[in-house]
Specification:
The structure is a homodimer. Chain A is an alpha/beta fold. Chain A folds into two domains: about 90 residues, 60s Ribosomal Protein L30, Chain: A, CATH 3.30.1330; about 150 residues, 3-Layer(aba) Sandwich (Alpha/beta knot), CATH 3.40.1280. Helix content of chain A is about 35%, strand content about 20%. Chain A contains ten helices and ten strands. In chain A, helix 6 runs parallel beside helix 7. Chains A and B meet through helix 6 and helix 10 of A and helix 6 and helix 10 of B.
Chain lengths: ~250, ~250
């Protein structure tokens, strides 16, 4: 059973305003539910079909999670997906504490105004693949707990810490402890540039790149050389992937 | 003016069936129209606002292109975009001839059942950036002239040759002239594997990877090592980007 108020609450969490207000977000589908159940995220409640519950009841009960059994028709009404998939989880947005600069790992990513939810989710997924644990993002970057972002992370959202910050202050404060590289079209060739660790790589907005304000305080600019007469740029998540790959390769 | 029949024709070209039947496709918006006007693609006709025509009439007239002036209201009805952007172009799907193996460039891509239009478009854009001119794709890969694919290429669709082929026969025939590498999770570490040119890299389906049939005839398997305990895979277009980057770096 799902009540009208529960339905309304679920739907409201698709909007950032209500996620912020409730410090809660929604994940949907069998795979994502499995991922969050394996993580340290605090689960508030689960709406699922009898079929889903039958294969997850030990886990749900052992963690003392509030479970509501719903019908397929109720699932369809509650879901934000075109093909709902057995289960919807409401979880708490975690409070992140910032580790000491020395404990953030040898590579971190900094995102300056990434707008597309698919790009943000894909960047989080890529960072996770390469073992990057901390990402810093400007306050106007897309919201990590937007359902489209969560979906694109393929579960990596539960393994990465993404800190929203005023980037300009964050970068100024970190210049002493991190080697900060801004990714720009005209930057030094990434394949031959010297790279020092711990390193932070800044990825800019999809159409405008890194803002002038940030670029002016970044000591080093790097870029992925083009071998084309025509293409003006790479997709932001592809560029982030290539930069992560190249930094990881050099680190090992 | 745009007639009912012209409207119907434009809308029909959103479907592969009608694109195949007419050997024609649609591109929309100022940027994409500029890109196709700069290319060698044969343009059949253009529907555009008076504003667009005033800044493009010399080009349109000098190339002898059929132009129909339409109002903003007509543009909205004709467009497939949520925010129509001044111009819609109908162009011919080019007939591709296969160059001799030695003239295809030092790196080619092979796509095995890439399904997501955004991924296909992004891979084409990345290939273009790195100067890769030829891509081979299985016949069940997404259609290059799908409007979402074209949009994601950001104009690179006009600079790349994508050949749809029976991949199994193509790979068998190319084994003598190309060094073919299949990208798989368990493959040899891409950062340390020996690579010979001319090289072809196979990228597999988003969820299933490269098919068993193809994998069984590919001499070398390579992979991007993971440094994560959790992430199961990379996004297909990010993986393609990292592989292109690494092959290009080794070539130079």
């Amino acid at each position: 059973m799902i009540s009208k108020n529960q339905l309304k609450h679920l739907h409201s969490l698709r909007l950032k305003k209500f996620r912020d207000l409730n410090q809660a977000f929604v994940v949907e589908g069998i795979k994502m539910a499995d991922e969050i159940l394996e993580s340290n995220f605090r689960i508030i409640e689960i709406f699922g079909t009898a079929g889903w519950f039958s294969s997850h009841q030990d886990l749900v009960n052992s963690r003392g999670i509030l479970f509501h059994e719903i019908t397929d028709a109720e699932l369809t009404r509650a879901s934000g997906l075109t093909s709902p998939n057995e289960v919807i989880v409401i979880a708490s947005i975690p409070e992140l504490t910032l580790p000491e600069p020395g404990l953030m790992g040898k590579i971190i990513l900094i995102l300056d105004r990434i707008q597309d939810p698919g790009n943000l989710g894909t960047i989080v997924r890529t960072a996770d693949w390469f073992g990057i644990r901390h990402i810093f993002a400007s306050e106007d970057t897309a919201d990590l707990f937007n359902p489209k972002v969560i979906q694109a992370t393929m579960g990596s959202v539960f393994r990465i810490s993404l800190h929203y910050r005023d980037l300009s202050s964050f970068i100024r404060e970190s210049l002493g402890s991190l080697n900060i590289y801004g990714a720009t079209a005209g930057g030094e060739n990434i394949y031959t540039a010297e790279i020092s660790f711990p390193a932070a790589v800044i990825i800019g907005n999809e159409s405008q790149g890194i803002s002038e304000e940030i670029l002016s305080i970044v000591p080093r600019k790097i870029g992925i050389p083009s071998f084309s007469g025509g293409a003006e740029s790479l997709n932001a998540s592809v560029a982030a992937g290539i930069l992560c790959s190249e930094f990881i390769r050099r680190m090992n």
